[in-house]
Write a structure and sequence with these properties.
The complex is a heterodimer. Chain A has 3 domains: 158 residues, no CATH class; 107 residues, Cytochrome Bc1 Complex, Chain D, domain 2, CATH 1.10.760; 115 residues, Cytochrome c-like domain (Cytochrome Bc1 Complex, Chain D, domain 2). Chain A is 42% helix and 5% strand. Chain A has 18 helices and 7 strands. Chain B has 13 helices and 22 strands. Helix content of chain B is 22%, strand content 18%. Chain B starts with a strand and ends in a 10-residue tail after the last helix. The chains are: A mainly alpha, B alpha/beta. Chains A and B meet through β7 of A and α2 of B.
């Protein structure tokens, strides 16, 4: 019997078209699974640089070491071709792999647990249609004792709430759809929510910004100063659909999210996401702009010399090409890492069909010192209605050192 | 032995303005297109970012964006009795290398030629009688009215800043009253005008002329073109000509087309791939593709259904001659086409030392200026003047850069304390009026293969035989005198008229407006391509750019190059793709 099964498997693996049918699956279910896998941006983590899509191997940097994403193509030996649908659902819903082994929460099962069984099964049906790719998983490089997986039981007990999303009857169906996507498959909080010392999400600060992989993912609540409260619903939809709106353009990791995921979602879902995010209150703080500091004067001179050609004297920029700086959430974030990084190494926005022009900021790391970067960011963070604490040269030094380390890899 | 690659529908030789335009339109029509560019990839934020774009030493003096003569050059002589010598430094003109071509380092002066320019021979003969037998000028075989929609298309692609002077036949105040009728105004308003050109405009008006803001490919405001590509407002930094724009403010292939084209699955760009030959089948009536060489010296054959020559004019003509396509021009008999009708531009200037008015020449844009067109083409009566055609006069605010720009009165020493003192006194207060004249084709001016000098691949260099003739000298003197009239009306402390005298020299920079060598027309005896830029002899071979100009007009060529390319593409898409073959039947 076992031999027969193996033979059958080999046969099916070689004929994906037939196998797709054997595995059940109507075309509409596969299409739905594909859409949901896009909403979950599975391809981003599960594809290595220049690797085959979904074949894994991308290093995911965590505060505790590096984890390599696994292969989720239907290859039986190195992918998930040998998993049953129930095993797949268990992994997505509880973070436990088929052998009973706990998965590291770099895999965002604390979010995916909210997805319905039906949606998860559709994703599986879609993944089953991919061409199987042989790509053995790489062992994580974690600091002791975090390489002991059984510790994850304790982590789960502390920080993981298993359970499918439950609709909030007080809110509209649109809001609930947005919440389902943001809190579930979209796993926005995986980047945009701060984590505690153990890497658990700080639920009380949901979507108010978080650090990962050397970026500060900004506050995306309705906070008008530090969040996106000044954006209209259409602004949010445009940003997610085209990578650009009148306030900002996506760079860095968010550019990948837009290219691979949100630009491909239906506008109705993007409206739902916007409705939910706008309704998140955050914790707005009353911050007064700095005044009279000599750093501001120095920063203004640097700004006029090096920045105003694109961002204009009045900080209004050229909407959808060179970001306006007045009202920028990024510049007023409680953590300036991303702003510092953009100045030091420059940035490129992701081109999309709707906005094909790549807007780009050149690198200034080679021509501005730590103190100069700090001064100019302090100036723009406290001009045109902005307010943020003074950026320290030592903060710039920290980011610069980190980038240097990255570049030495 | 060349490695034969899979065939494609279209191969583009060179990837500047016309290559990008053709690539965009034909990939949109579904054709598999490969562009071959001898230089490297160039992109705004990486290669001319605002943090280093304004580096005069690197770009202006060390020619970072230009062709390297050590790699490829040509030989030059003034007339057939001389032995041509190779150019070891660029001078009079600056061909580019790399993606975007000269469309990266141009100023952005984007004119339409006059309706009478396209019927130059018949118009002038009708009005003034027979022309000198040495003038091999001819009608273009295409009219202004035919080109108008395609001028418009190119101007809207680029986001040209300007003011219409003639909307559907109705005069418009503030624009150029001599221009051909436009269907609609420019996509963007004129740039903010600088003080020097404003003073020129006032003086021009006071002396009975009609000044207008010159059409500019420098953005007067943010602009999204019909392809969805965005350009930003110009910052008036004054680093246009010889520089890439770091602010996305100057139209170039990079800032108007490439963001869309590079995303198309049916388009492929191969950089550092130099085409060395156009391949023909045994009948000699059909191009089978091209052969190119990469930087490793590997040779590839790229078969294609259609071949477009989109390189700089000197390379297009060189390639035709090396590939043995078309009959080379023979100046003794006047027979042959390839290399015939080579022309250029004749320029002069008048420095106007105002003494007390501060002009801030460091504020500028490549096409920031006021012009008059009263002496261009046949906008004025040439009876008794001894020449045909003309040019525009303009006062620009650009290029006021520290190393290059040091306006000093005549007879000032070239160095030392007197030079420094004169420089300090005059830098801020000097305007220059330029004249930009047409050059008529002449039987003694041509391009052919050099019998002596060879390139690194052992092939004969291109040889240029060129001089200004009576028509150019008389016309340029006339234009310079008119510039002097206006300069005097600006009430200067003194002026310095720099007339164009003597033989053409290939050494000092003049303009990168070389034209001709594979002229267009309606008679295969005097033209290499028909009005659709299609070779008469080889219907699947097309030649673009100023290479096809039968003679040069008194304007910068890019606007007309754009219009001709879109006009040809329209016929290619509507007729040729359905029924490949000659687009003009004789």
């Amino acid at each position: 019997m076992k031999t027969l099964c193996s033979l059958l498997t080999v046969f099916l693996a070689l004929t994906p078209f037939l196998r797709a049918h054997a595995a059940d699956t109507s075309a509409s279910r596969i299409a739905r699974g594909r859409y949901l896998a896009t909403a979950g941006d599975c391809v981003a983590c599960h594809t290595a640089d220049k690797g085959k899509p979904f074949a894994g191997g991308r290093p995911i940097e965590t505060p505790f070491g590096i984890i390599y994403s696994p292969n989720i193509t239907p290859d039986r030996d190195t992918g998930i071709g040998g998993w049953s649908d129930d095993q797949f659902y268990r992994a997505m819903h509880t973070g436990v792999g088929p052998s009973g082994r706990h998965l590291y929460p770099a895999f965002p099962y604390p979010y995916f647990t909210k997805a319905t069984h039906e949606d998860v099964s559709a994703i599986r049906a879609y993944l089953d249609t991919l061409e199987p790719v042989k790509n053995a998983r790489k062992e994580p490089r974690l600091t002791w004792p975090l390489d002991w997986r059984y510790l994850l039981r304790g982590w789960n007990w502390l920080y993981f709430d298993e359970g499918t999303y439950r609709a909030n009857a007080q809110k509209s169906p649109e809001w609930n759809r947005g919440a389902y996507l943001v809190e579930g498959l979209g796993h926005c909080g995986a980047c945009h929510t701060a984590t505690n010392f153990a890497g658990g999400a700080k639920a009380s600060e949901a979507l108010e910004g978080g650090m990962l992989q050397g970026w500060f993912a900004p506050n995306i609540t309705g906070d008008r100063r530090a969040g996106i409260g000044s954006w209209s619903t259409e602004d949010i939809v445009d940003y997610l659909k085209t990578g650009r709106n009148s306030h900002s353009g996506a760079t860095g990791l968010m550019a990948e999210v837009i290219t691979d995921s949100t630009s491909k979602l239906d506008r109705s879902d993007l409206h739902a996401i916007a409705a939910y995010l706008e309704d998140m209150p955050g914790h707005p703080q009353d911050v007064s702009p700095l005044q009279g500091s000599p750093t501001l004067a120095a920063g203004r001179a640097i700004y006029r010399d090096s920045c105003s050609a694109c961002h204009q004297y009045d900080g209004k920029g050229v909407p959808k090409l060179f970001s306006p700086l007045g009202g920028s959430a990024l510049l007023q974030s409680r953590d300036h890492t991303t702003a510092i990084r953009l100045v030091l190494e420059g940035a490129r926005t992701a081109p999309t069909d709707a906005r094909p022009t790549t807007a780009a900021m050149p690198a200034y790391g080679w021509k501005l010192s730590d103190a100069e970067v700090a001064a100019v960011l302090t100036y723009v963070g406290n001009s045109w209605g902005n307010a943020t604490p003074e950026v320290a040269a030592s903060d710039v030094r920290t980011v610069r050192e980190r980038l240097r380390l990255e570049h030495d890899h | 032995m060349a490695k034969k690659l899979p065939a494609v529908d279209v191969v583009l030789v060179g990837f500047g303005w016309t290559g990008a335009m053709i690539g965009e339109e034909l990939t949109a029509a579904g054709l598999r297109t490969v562009a071959l560019e001898r230089g490297g990839w160039r992109d705004t934020s990486t290669d001319f970012a605002v943090t280093f774009a304004q580096d005069e030493l690197r770009y202006m003096w060390r020619g970072h964006l230009f062709q390297e003569p050590a790699h490829q050059t040509l030989t030059f002589r003034n007339d057939s009795s001389q032995t041509a010598l190779p150019l070891r430094h660029l001078g009079s003109f600056l061909p580019a290398s790399g993606v975007g071509g000269a469309g990266v380092h141009w100023n952005g002066q984007t004119w339409r030629f006059l309706p009478s320019d396209f019927v130059l021979r018949s118009h002038n003969e009708q009005r003034y009688g027979a022309l000198s037998q040495d003038m091999t000028v001819q009608d273009w075989g295409v009219t202004y009215d035919e080109l108008e929609p395609f001028y418009d298309k190119f101007e809207y692609l680029c986001g040209i800043s300007g003011k219409a002077g003639n909307l559907r036949g109705a005069r418009q105040d503030g624009g150029n009253p001599f221009e051909g009728p436009r269907a609609r105004d420019f996509p963007n308003p004129p740039l903010e005008m600088a003080y020097g050109p404003t003073l020129f405009g006032q003086a021009a008006r006071d002396t009975g002329h009609t000044p207008f803001p010159c059409p500019a490919a420098n953005m007067s405001r943010a602009y999204t073109n019909p392809l969805g590509v965005m350009l930003a407002p110009c910052t008036y930094c004054g680093f246009c000509e010889k520089f890439g724009c770091g602010n996305n403010s100057k139209s170039s292939p990079q800032t108007t087309i490439l963001p869309v084209l590079m995303r198309r699955d049916n388009f492929e760009l191969r950089t550092e791939s130099e085409v060395v030959r156009i391949n023909m089948d045994s009948s000699g009536k059909r191009a089978t593709g091209v052969t190119y060489v990469d930087t490793q010296g590997n040779e590839f054959e790229q078969p294609a259904e259609m071949v477009f020559l989109c390189a700089y004019i000197l390379h297009n003509v060189h390639l035709l001659l090396l590939s043995g396509i078309g009959l080379p021009y023979d100046p003794r008999t006047g027979e042959g086409i390839v290399g015939r009708n080579y022309a250029y531009q004749v320029v002069s200037s008048v420095d106007v030392f105002l003494g007390d008015r501060i002009l801030n020449p460091f504020v500028g844009a490549g096409a920031l200026g006021v012009g008059i067109d009263d002496y261009n083409g046949d906008n004025f009566d040439h009876t008794g003047l001894g020449f045909i055609a003309g040019g525009y006069l303009a006062c620009w605010n650009t290029n006021g850069r520290p190393i290059e720009y040091h306006p000093v009165p005549k007879d000032t020493p070239k160095w030392g304390s007197k030079f420094k003192k004169a420089m300090a006194e005059n830098y801020l207060t000097t305007a220059t009026i330029s004249t930009h004249g047409a050059v008529m084709a002449n039987r003694g001016n041509f391009l052919d293969l050099d019998p002596t000098y060879r390139d690194a691949r052992g092939r004969p260099l291109l040889r240029m035989t060129f001089d200004f003739h009576d028509n150019e000298h008389r016309m340029s003197d006339y234009l310079t005198d008119r510039a002097v009239d206006i300069a005097r009306a600006m009430k200067p402390r003194e002026i310095h008229a720099k007339k164009r005298t003597g033989h053409y020299s290939v050494v000092p920079y003049q303009t990168t407006h070389n034209t001709g060598g594979a002229a267009m027309g309606s008679d295969p005896k005097t033209s290499f391509v028909n009005k659709y830029l299609q070779s008469w002899d080889v219907p699947n071979l097309f030649v673009t750019g100023s290479t096809v100009f039968p003679q040069n007009a008194g304007y910068n060529p890019t606007g007309t190059i754009g219009a001709l390319t879109y006009f040809a593409l329209d016929a290619i898409k509507k007729q040729y793709l359905k029924n490949p073959g000659p687009l003009v039947q004789l």
